[in-house]
Amino acid sequence: MAETHQLFASPFVVDKLQSDEGVVALRKVIEDERARDSQGIKISNMGGWHSNTDMAEWGGEVARALAFKAMTMADALTVDSKSPKQSRYSWVPEMWANVSGKGDSNQYHTHPGSFWSAVAYIDDGYKGSNDTNLGGELQLQDPRMPMVRMTAPDLRFKEPSGNPQQNEVMIRPRTGMIVLFPSWMQHAVRAFHGEGTRISVAINLIPAVDASAGETRH
Fold this sequence. Notes:
Shape: globular
CATH architecture: Sandwich
Order of helices and strands: EHEEHHEEEEEEEE
Strand order of the largest sheet: 1-9-6-11-4-3
Largest sheet: 6 strands, antiparallel
Radius of gyration: 19 Å
Distance between the termini: 49 Å
CATH superfamily: q2cbj1_9rhob like domain
CATH class: Mainly Beta
């Protein structure tokens, strides 16, 4: 009897920030930085405000606590194949904030030079609405795209359940949500049409050989 195996899965984690006070404090430091530097920078963002990538510094202890949360999530899903009991690597976090209003979005992109990337939602901007027409979803694209559909766009691989595999997954943000995914995964944010203000923090985790391997990781 034929055996079917599923190979090369791409990990994706959804978790929740445990401290409501931390979420409030993060919002405050982001608003303060936006007031200090109203221009910000432009990378993948189509509209909205994108801070510099030094949030680990200007965000203070509350930003470093968020980075540690992302590192903890990454540690749970990462192994050093040459030193599985005690990894030789630690994470160097790179962080920035995004503030989006009506019509703002982020185009498809990856984060070269990092291993894991995360995004934490400080305010989803929906103001409690469940209206799916408000957009703003995080989009994750199958890393095999578009090659797997170039010759026959209507064909899909079957999941073990028998359902067709999705080539794009959309995650609707919630305030206090944090998600983690491989930095090479193409991702984007659909145009946001909520009445509120979307505030999020993006984190890149860059692996670095830890000179103190065998002692404290972070």
